[in-house]
Write a structure and sequence with these properties.
This protein is of the alpha/beta class. The chain has two domains: 110 residues, Aspartate Aminotransferase, domain 1, CATH 3.90.1150; 218 residues, Type I PLP-dependent aspartate aminotransferase-like (Major domain) (Aspartate Aminotransferase, domain 2, 3-Layer(aba) Sandwich), CATH 3.40.640.10. It is built from eleven helices and twelve strands. The strands form three sheets. A seven-stranded mixed beta sheet has the order 2-8-7-6-5-3-4, with helices on both faces. A three-stranded antiparallel beta sheet has the order 9-10-12. It has a two-stranded parallel sheet with strand order 1-11. Strand 9 and strand 10 form a beta hairpin. Helix 4 crosses helix 7 and helix 9 packs parallel to helix 11. The longest helix has 24 residues. The termini are far apart.
Length: 349
């Protein structure tokens, strides 16, 4: 007997990148940071008394919200924290998009968006990317909501701050949600300051990428008080304590160590740009990247073969055998040593 609901049966779950269990792999498939977290994180974890874990954590993540608010110069009541940006985004779908139609989103973007749309009965209006993989914001008008990853994934391209502002202006009747998971690796600015100007603009970020805390699952949103209250309302109807004590303390330490964050993100950018130059020198078509990954094109059906060749040599990349994506490979930025091994393998291929 099938005990699943009809909706559960119809869902197509998100497929995450391969997580190898044996050693020896070069893992360039899930956009993790090649640098360790800030040393301040280790200090905070070491100083935490395990006895404190017998108590529930602060359900509002107050001290972490204070640290984020201070970093971005926004009021504390305009910050919301959740269990990774995935949870924050899922709560946003429930709070702002559920039951509505014409939620504008690109056809090629983060793979979780269509799943949440299906799960929370949000009617998406899919807008194809341009031939150069860019987002044409003139096509995003008068929606009941907008969700765009900026920089976009898996393309790595980014909208300017003025373009994000135009999206907020052009869609006054819905929440414009900008998913900035990779913004810290971009030459474009974060849209967080615009949230103080536009009530309908919500910006979501994560500690998984530029702060090297993917293993702790911490994300946050910044927006007007009415949007933050909406997220809080849905969260408290679902999970009152989304972030544990260790997560809150570690993330607060990481976001306060601005010098370390800046040095490591610059390191990722330098390795990324060096790798792009090498790939282009070998004749590959590589999009300009504003992220910690590279989106490279290999035509004539070779992208899948390159992926398999890398796999045979214990190098993991990301490949989608789907329309408009089958000629591309997404490669996360690893350490210098890892990227040299990757380049060597590509040359051998």
């Amino acid at each position: 007997m099938n005990y699943l609901t009809k909706k559960a049966q119809q869902l197509t779950p998100y497929v995450a990148g391969i997580q190898p269990r044996e050693p020896g792999w070069i893992k360039l498939n899930t956009n993790e940071n090649p640098y360790p977290p800030s040393p301040k994180v280790a200090e905070v974890l070491a100083a935490t008394d395990p006895v404190a874990l017998r108590l529930y954590p602060d359900g509002s993540s107050g001290k972490l919200c204070t640290a984020i608010a201070s970093r971005y110069n926004v009021p504390e009541d305009k910050v919301f924290c959740g269990n990774g940006s995935d949870e924050v985004l899922a709560l946003a779908y429930q709070a702002f998009f559920s039951g509505k139609t014409d939620i504008l989103t690109p056809d090629i973007s983060y793979g979780f968006y269509p799943i949440w749309a299906q799960m929370y009965d949000a009617g998406s209006k899919i807008i194809p990317l341009e031939d150069d993989c860019s987002v044409d914001i003139s096509k995003y008008k008068n929606g009941n909501g907008v969700i765009i990853a900026n920089p976009n994934a898996p393309t790595g391209l980014a909208l300017t701050l003025s373009e994000v502002e135009q999206l907020a202006k052009n869609n006054p009747g819905g929440v414009v949600l900008i998913d900035e998971a990779y913004i810290d690796f971009s030459s474009e600015e974060s849209a967080v300051p615009l949230t103080q100007k536009y009530e309908n603009l919500l910006v979501v970020q994560t500690f998984s990428k530029s702060y090297s805390l993917a293993g702790l699952r911490v994300g946050f949103a910044v927006g007007s008080k009415i949007l933050i209250d909406g997220l809080q309302r849905v969260k408290d109807a679902f999970n009152s304590y989304p972030l544990g004590l260790l997560e809150q303390r570690a993330a607060a330490a990481a976001i306060c160590d601005v010098e370390y964050w800046d040095n490591t993100r610059r390191g990722v950018i330098a390795i990324r740009d060096k790798t792009i130059l090498e790939l282009r020198g070998m004749g590959y078509d590589v999009l300009d990247s504003h992220t910690n990954f590279i989106f490279m094109k290999q035509s004539d059906g070779q992208a899948g073969k390159l992926y398999e060749y890398l796999l045979e040599n214990k190098i993991l990349a990301r490949y989608w055998n789907k329309p408009r994506l089958s000629e591309y490979l997404r490669v996360s930025v690893g350490t210098n040593v890892e990227m040299e091994a990757f380049i060597k393998c590509v040359k051998q291929f």
